[in-house]
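Quiz preparation item.
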């Protein structure tokens, strides 16, 4: 009797374990960066929190290193539901979600603290609401520091040094027009093609933060990094809205909270990574210069004049500036 009871209990436990194992839903998330990069780790941390808080019913698998494709393609995948999650930059959404233009504007933020205040507050909520129109739920805004120009040819000290140079930019018209306003030429292309583009001379340079310049090994071919810090462009971690809507209200709250909780973790990893990458690229031969930044700021008038005409965006820009 005792033995039978023991066996039955063991069988019941096994059955339960099997059932819960089968009940687990694994959500796919994409990232262009390699394993260990702060955004990849931020999403992994989100996944751990979700797994813990749903008692293992949900788990997240991060396909890092562009395993699922380049950023623009993976945005299509998450919008159509082929994948449930995605961590990308804000800029490739500029043509789809008009409110995403504002944080991508050159010199809109005075500092990273200013950007945090904006994205963590009412304007951040306004941008989140706008993403729903594109079939996406924003789970987090992550840090990506400041983007600056780098190139294979020469140090850039003033706007005049930019004349006629050819830069790869992230896939957004704001960036194309920003480069034009500086007297240079912009070629939007996928991130994964930038290294060879610079190596073969198709482009003279690109623009990014230190961790990307480091981990994509761009510093190996483009030694001149000029700290013009034209954007403090946040990253965005999104979920397919239909997949989110299928969750129970309790699980939706868990996902949202895990997203919020992963921000602190990502920001902490990010600030450590910036210093680490800067040291690494300098050791690798990169020459970092601080250009005359005011000239870059003053050249941005046409970008604002062209892209900030919609009253909603005009108001948003004013609101961002008013955030202290
Ligand atoms: C990085 C960003 C990536 C990608 C890349 C790019 O800073 O983290 O998501 O957008 O820039 O320039 O394509």
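Solution:
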């Amino acid at each position: 009797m005792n033995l039978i009871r023991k066996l039955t209990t063991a069988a019941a436990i096994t059955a339960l374990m099997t059932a819960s194992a089968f009940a687990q839903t694994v959500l796919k998330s994409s990232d262009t960066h390699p394993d260990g990069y702060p955004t990849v780790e931020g999403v992994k941390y989100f996944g751990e929190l979700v797994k813990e808080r749903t008692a293992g019913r949900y788990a997240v698998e991060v396909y890092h290193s562009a395993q699922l494709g380049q950023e623009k393609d993976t945005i299509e995948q998450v919008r159509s539901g082929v994948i449930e999650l995605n961590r990308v930059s804000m800029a490739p959404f500029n043509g789809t979600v008009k409110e995403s233009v504002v944080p991508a504007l050159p010199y809109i933020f005075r500092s990273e603290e200013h950007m945090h205040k904006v994205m963590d507050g009412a304007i951040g909520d306004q941008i989140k609401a706008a993403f729903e129109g594109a079939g996406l739920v924003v789970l987090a805004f992550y840090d990506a520091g400041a983007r600056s120009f780098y190139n294979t040819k020469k140090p850039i000290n003033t706007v005049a040094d930019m004349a006629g140079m050819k830069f790869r930019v992230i896939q957004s018209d704001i960036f194309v027009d920003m480069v034009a306003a500086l007297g240079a030429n912009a070629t939007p292309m996928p991130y994964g093609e930038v290294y060879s583009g610079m190596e073969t001379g198709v482009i003279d340079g690109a623009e990014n933060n230190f961790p990307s310049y480091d981990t994509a090994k761009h510093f190996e071919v483009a030694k001149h990094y000029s700290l013009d810090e034209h954007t403090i462009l946040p990253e965005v971690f999104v979920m397919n809205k239909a997949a989110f809507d299928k969750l129970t209200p309790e699980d939706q709250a868990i996902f949202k909270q895990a997203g919020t909780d992963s921000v602190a973790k990502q920001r902490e990893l990010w600030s450590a990574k910036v210093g680490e990458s800067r040291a690494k690229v300098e050791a690798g031969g990169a020459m970092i210069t601080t250009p005359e930044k005011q000239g870059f700021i003053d050249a941005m008038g046409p970008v604002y004049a062209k892209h900030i005409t919609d009253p909603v965006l005009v108001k948003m820009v004013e609101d961002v500036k008013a955030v202290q």
